[in-house]
Specification:
Elements: E1 2-6, H1 14-30, E2 34-38, E3 46-51, H2 72-84, H3 86-93, E4 97-100, H4 105-108, H5 111-118, H6 128-135, H7 137-146, E5 155-157, H8 166-174, E6 177-181, E7 191-193, H9 196-205, E8 211-215, E9 221-227, E10 230-231, E11 235-239, H10 246-250, E12 255-258, H11 265-281, E13 289-296, E14 302-308, H12 318-325, H13 330-340
Helix pairs in contact: 1-13, 2-3, 5-6
């Protein structure tokens, strides 16, 4: 096929997305496809291509810190212009498949998917409605809760507009809490907070942002990928830090990831069932894929933390690790994701 890979973008996960895009490009070239790599937010959007099978694609490292959000408006302007007209849109129209390797922001909240749907272009992953449902963590958890899935208590908070909500004060009084943006990925701006003064200090750093406060779950952490309607083997995330934050995810030594997880078969099946149910509850169909993150409370009971509509796709990311546990080489995983993206399924 002629495949255009969209990566980079305007979010805080821009670096991770570049790394995913290049990994996907190498896999598709390995499977015999023609590939063009595009960053719609870049000044020169076409990064490489069209590349023929056998071509080399350079590696890219993920930095220790996420990119600054200061220039996000400029990147958004470029991205919108590229996807709604001009040579990038024509390139997309000439492709047989658009492979989305965008993480966060418009690439994962449904914006890009809606533009591609309007243009009637086939693309990988969930549709715009499912992406939007999963992207807002508080709303997604409300949907999962209504579907009977276990989730932690959560309190919305927008610092700068009002004092810390009483319910959030009660949570932090009962023990440590986690504070994070309601929309975002790669664990950017996730904080563990142990006291009310610490919580109040976050108000200045996150004034005007929509945050979510929830109890810190001290138990084991797992993640389960779903491809179409099939749950992959469970991955356990063994942390060397209290939180699976940006640095732990993308820097050596921050975390150990074990697949298949060393848990009883019945518990693994329970986690897989939770992931499939979460996938379906948020509107992910048989043409989509997702990754559900789970953390256990102090009694070992698993709680759904979030569902990722476009999880990392570097060769060492969690979803590819789970695929390896299922016996799939990385290029096979990428081909399976591409095969799900049937134009008729939209």
């Amino acid at each position: 096929m002629r495949v255009v890979i969209l990566c980079g973008g305007e979010s805080a996960e821009r670096d991770v997305s570049h790394a995913s895009g290049r990994s996907v490009a190498r896999a598709l070239l390995d499977r015999g496809h023609e590939v063009t790599l595009v960053d719609p937010a870049a000044g020169v959007p076409v990064l490489a291509g069209p590349l023929q099978p056998g071509a080399a694609v350079e590696e890219i490292a993920v930095g220790k810190e996420p990119p600054s959000p200061a220039d996000r408006q400029r990147l958004q302007h470029r991205m919108h212009a590229a996807l709604t007209g001009g040579p990038v849109l024509e390139l997309l129209r000439g492709a047989e498949l658009v492979f989305l390797a965008l993480h966060g922001g418009w690439g994962e909240d449904g914006h890009v998917q809606a533009l591609l749907e309007r243009a009637r272009l086939p693309f990988t992953g969930a549709d715009s409605a499912a992406c939007a449902a999963a992207w807002h963590k508080a709303r997604a958890q409300a949907v999962l809760d209504a579907a009977g899935l276990p989730v932690a208590n959560r309190v919305p908070w927008r610092p700068g507009t009002r004092e810390v909500p009483r319910a959030a004060r009660e949570l932090v009084a009962a023990g440590p809490v986690v504070v994070k943006p309601v929309a975002g990925g790669s664990s950017v701006s996730v904080h563990r907070v142990d006291s009310l003064p610490e919580l109040e200090l976050l108000a200045d750093a996150h004034a005007g942002e929509e945050l979510m406060v929830e109890p810190f779950l001290p138990g084991r952490e797992f993640t389960v990928g779903v491809i179409g309607s099939r749950a992959l083997p469970v991955v356990e995330i063994e942390l060397t830090t209290p939180l699976f934050d940006y640095a732990a995810k993308y820097q050596p030594g921050g975390v150990s990831e074990v697949c298949p997880a060393r848990v009883p078969d019945g518990f693994a099946r329970r986690l897989q069932d939770m992931a499939v149910r979460a996938h379906r509850a948020l509107g992910f169909g048989a043409d989509a894929y997702s990754r559900t993150d789970v953390r256990c409370d102090g009694h070992g009971a698993p709680m759904c933390i979030e569902v990722n509509a476009l999880p990392g796709l570097t060769a060492t990311s969690l979803l590819p690790l789970a695929a390896t546990g299922a016996g799939w080489a990385y290029p096979e995983l990428i081909q399976r994701i591409a095969d799900l993206a049937r134009p008729s399924a939209r």
